[in-house]
């Protein structure tokens, strides 16, 4: 399903920042990529692959401990490397960070990157957020 979603939306690059589970999963996904594409084509799930979507560039970085992506409250957030790329390249970036139950890292990352939209568990989105987000991104 992940491969299908990436291909259907023309996503060809992933940057995974996390721990052992995230990076191990990303490496498995990368190693299975060509087989997943063959399976999608064989099963008729994708009649025509988007140009360039057969390639997947995947980067990974450990989310802790001296890697440049430091724990909350330290000098650099994971998203600081992404700013100002989205605006200058007229692209939309989606960045997911650790913090399933605590949104501090997401909040700091959003501030550091100049995010237009941010989700944190302490403040769930209100009804109709999808339309508001699309409108904001369209600007």
Automatic annotation (TrEMBL):
<dbReference type="GO" id="GO:0030388">
    <property type="term" value="P:fructose 1,6-bisphosphate metabolic process"/>
</dbReference>
<dbReference type="InterPro" id="IPR035966">
    <property type="entry name" value="PKF_sf"/>
</dbReference>
<comment type="pathway">
    <text>Carbohydrate degradation; glycolysis; D-glyceraldehyde 3-phosphate and glycerone phosphate from D-glucose: step 3/4.</text>
</comment>
<dbReference type="GO" id="GO:0005524">
    <property type="term" value="F:ATP binding"/>
</dbReference>
<dbReference type="GO" id="GO:0048029">
    <property type="term" value="F:monosaccharide binding"/>
</dbReference>
<dbReference type="GO" id="GO:0016020">
    <property type="term" value="C:membrane"/>
</dbReference>
<keyword id="KW-0324">Glycolysis</keyword>
<dbReference type="InterPro" id="IPR000023">
    <property type="entry name" value="Phosphofructokinase_dom"/>
</dbReference>
<dbReference type="GO" id="GO:0042802">
    <property type="term" value="F:identical protein binding"/>
</dbReference>
<dbReference type="GO" id="GO:0070095">
    <property type="term" value="F:fructose-6-phosphate binding"/>
</dbReference>
<dbReference type="GO" id="GO:0003872">
    <property type="term" value="F:6-phosphofructokinase activity"/>
</dbReference>
<keyword id="KW-0460">Magnesium</keyword>
<dbReference type="GO" id="GO:0005945">
    <property type="term" value="C:6-phosphofructokinase complex"/>
</dbReference>
<dbReference type="GO" id="GO:0006002">
    <property type="term" value="P:fructose 6-phosphate metabolic process"/>
</dbReference>
<dbReference type="Pfam" id="PF00365">
    <property type="entry name" value="PFK"/>
</dbReference>
<keyword id="KW-0418">Kinase</keyword>
<dbReference type="GO" id="GO:0061621">
    <property type="term" value="P:canonical glycolysis"/>
</dbReference>
<dbReference type="GO" id="GO:0046872">
    <property type="term" value="F:metal ion binding"/>
</dbReference>
<dbReference type="InterPro" id="IPR022953">
    <property type="entry name" value="ATP_PFK"/>
</dbReference>
<feature type="domain" description="Phosphofructokinase">
    <location>
        <begin position="88"/>
        <end position="126"/>
    </location>
</feature>
<keyword id="KW-0963">Cytoplasm</keyword>
<protein>
    <submittedName>
        <fullName>6-phosphofructokinase, liver type</fullName>
    </submittedName>
</protein>
<keyword id="KW-0479">Metal-binding</keyword>
<dbReference type="GO" id="GO:0016208">
    <property type="term" value="F:AMP binding"/>
</dbReference>
<keyword id="KW-0808">Transferase</keyword>
